[in-house]
User: Fold these one by one.
Assistant:
Number 1:
Amino acid sequence: MSTPMADDLINWKAFAETRNLMGAGFVRILGYFREDGMKSLATIEEAMRLKDSAKLVMPAHTLKGESWQFGAEKLGSLAEQVEITARHYVEIRQDPSDLVEKVAALRPTFEATLAALEAEVSPLVERKPHAFGNRSAFGGRGFSS
């Protein structure tokens, strides 16, 4: 079910476009997002423990791209900030200690995002309209007043 917090996390129009493009494989691909996201988060967190800027770049880049694919703009933007800053730190040979807060925010943002996405595709959840158009609980289009 869409909540105000979920609407802050997800661009529902981008989500709907991706869902339409992927068709029947969408739920399976969302499962890959879950798996890949968990791996990326673990790698990012380990890189922070090691204070290794270079090891932050690729998993943050991966998380960013996959997030944006599903309309998860808040998570994608946060991952992008980590990626860009880590790339800069690699160039200037600086450890990523300044990124602790952003990295710490990734996991709860990922979990909240994933919960919102999974609730949206669950056949057991009644849905409220999103800003991009009204929808009935059964996924059909309704009328705006």
Number 2:
Amino acid sequence: MKQWWSVMVEDLNLNAVKSLQELPYIAIGKHLCGPATDLTLRCCLVDEKNVEQCGSNCHLKGLAIATCCHHLCQWKHYINKKYLTSLGIGKEEFHAITWFTSWAVDADHGSDLSDVMDFKLHPESIEKEECAEDAIGRAKLGFMCKQIIDTGRLMWLKEHGLETQLVKYVPSSVSPENHLLIASF
């Protein structure tokens, strides 16, 4: 009979997984809400302090993680605080940024918001125009905040020697949670 183990990603040491030792592997994650993305990135990559322990057993070749639920990100788990602090963003500002990310997913996504900067309004009244402009402005801010969070993640992966990119895998009209973080050695 096989035994199944349950483990939290923040406690997982991939180098201790015998079935992965000596084998190349890639990490794939979909819908890793907020801090789960950061915890997974940390889990997949060896800290400089642990390189000697890893030795030839580290065979991560790449990863693909669909980022989402940025509003749930937590300062204590965020992977690249150094990047944020270089921008003058501390713990309080980070919490504000995560709060604003919800505006990107709260918007009306009947059309693709990737062109939100070029979106032209033709409202029937001044009142409707102000409401629409507010909604678009909120969506823009939300997407910018999501981008700040994911850019820090990309930069952290680059610092660990990976080639990285953030790609849009479906239009915003399908899902506003539509970015895939890709990295490879």
